[in-house]
Design goal:
six-stranded parallel beta sheet; Rossmann fold; 5 helices; alpha/beta
Length: 173
């Protein structure tokens, strides 16, 4: 199975990036075919339509997502929504090539508000792509990151998200 981990924050060194880098490192121990798309490092072009020319980075990210069996998606909450960078990335994905894939979701916020709303929005996005979504999303707040590291309590839940999403995907194959 191919896995892609997506950090949906455009901010360098963001808490979402720290969270998803941990997910990536753990997922790699469980599945060697794991790739990381970090939207703060990978400059994804703004989507202008299917007939435009896009950078190699954008085309590679699109390919990695389309070819992956499992998507582990992390997003910050910005203005009661998931990041526009994440939405832009998914503009490139052909929904006709994604049916049956499996996704896990991790959401980062500054406080305990808006998680369920954003989970619903990301799940709706996944539904558009006919992707089966693990119903147990991880909700993290910024106090779960200390000195650039995910705290142990949150590590446990993130590992569970990876394990449960991989198990769900293995049932689909």
């Amino acid at each position: 199975m191919k896995v892609v981990v997506i950090s949906g924050s455009p901010r360098k060194g963001a808490n979402t990036e720290i969270m998803m880098r941990f997910v990536y490192e753990y997922a790699k121990t469980e599945n060697e075919e794991t790739k990381f798309i970090n939207l703060s490092e990978s400059k994804i072009d703004c989507y202008y339509g299917p007939n435009e020319k896009y950078s190699d980075i954008t085309l590679q990210a699109t390919k990695d997502i389309t070819e992956a069996d499992i998507w582990l998606v992390g997003t910050p909450i910005y203005n009661s929504f998931f990041s526009s960078s994440l939405k832009n990335l998914f503009e490139y994905i052909n929904y006709k090539k994604t049916a049956g894939k499996v996704a896990g979701i991790a959401i980062m916020a500054s406080g305990n508000i808006g998680f369920v709303d954003v989970q619903t929005l990301v799940t709706q996005l996944m539904s558009y792509f006919r992707v089966i979504t693990n119903p147990k999303a991880v909700y993290m707040t910024i106090d779960m990151i200390k000195d650039g590291t995910v705290i142990d309590e949150a590590k446990t839940r993130l590992k569970e998200l990876v394990d449960e999403t991989l198990a769900l995907a293995s049932k689909q194959i």
